[in-house]
Amino acid sequence: MEVPRERSEDPGSGASKASLVVKIPQSNMTPEQARWSDLAKIMPNDRFADLGVTVGSSGSALKSYKLHRAVVCPQSKFFNSSSDHIDQAGDTVRFTFRSVETFDRVLSWLYRGNGANDSDDLQELQHLYRCARLLGILPLRLQILTTIASPEYQAKLSGETPETVVGFLNEVYGSIDSADFSKSWGIMDALCTKFMEKTSAGLLIDLLERGNISKQFKKHIRDKLQSARVLLLGFPDT
């Protein structure tokens, strides 16, 4: 490849001199976008992969992956702790999770920074949230909650069954721990409030009694209903 050169005149000698001109391509990406772009190029490259992972559960197909510790371990508590017990490249970590498709979306987030807000299906997002919880990826969990709490997604929730919404809220409530309490709690509580505004108290109580809903989540909803001065009849504590 020929490097472009320019010629300039030396006023003192009348001779022309060649000068080297280096043209650097300009990028329209932000530094954050450039970082994700570089990581996306690493993902399919096995050359520097040093962490084998097998995903699946009994009765489901298994899928093997070759990942990069430098990428996944800082972002996932599960991979970080598992990597501490692996001394040689090629050793494999087993992650028991039913859906390899959901795990693929988590990898897309780890390597590309997307995958949390490209679905309109609440059950798919619930599976993604559960996978992120098991892998210990707090930022992804928060991104999923923020996506669902957005006005754009709230408009789509009208197409979801109340049972699905209650099931998701119950799972989120039960998964909040001290590490993410301050951020997740506010979003989860706002989601409960928005759902309650669209659901009658009688139907809400009935939904809570149908499914496998935790006692703590029932109490949370009951307290919110009481604060709204709704008369509760026959609402059990267990």
Count of DSSP H/I helices: 11
What structural class should be given to the helix and strand makeup?
Answer: mainly alpha
Q: How far from one another are the termini?
A: 75 Å
Helix amount, in percent?
40-55%
Count of domain modules: 2
| Mean pLDDT reading | 75
Shape: globular
Written overview of the protein:
The chain has 238 residues and is mainly alpha-helical. The chain folds into two domains: 28-98, Potassium Channel Kv1.1, Chain A (2-Layer Sandwich), CATH 3.30.710; 116-238. 51% of the residues lie in helices and 11% in strands. The chain is built from eleven helices and five strands, in the order E-E-H-E-E-H-H-E-H-H-H-H-H-H-H-H. The strands form two sheets. The chain has a three-stranded mixed sheet with strand order 4-3-5. Helix 4 crosses helix 5 (122-135), helix 5 packs antiparallel against helix 6 and helix 6 packs parallel to helix 9 (181-197).
Quick tags:
238 residues, mainly alpha, Potassium Channel Kv1.1, Chain A, 2 domains, 11 helices, 51% helix, disordered C terminus
Present the secondary structure layout.
Blueprint: E1 5-9, E2 16-20, H1 31-42, E3 51-56, E4 63-67, H2 69-72, H3 77-83, E5 92-96, H4 100-112, H5 122-135, H6 138-149, H7 151-156, H8 162-175, H9 181-197, H10 201-210, H11 215-227
Parallel strand pairs: 3-5
Antiparallel strand pairs: 1-2, 3-4
Helix pairs in contact: 4-5, 5-6, 5-8, 6-9, 8-9
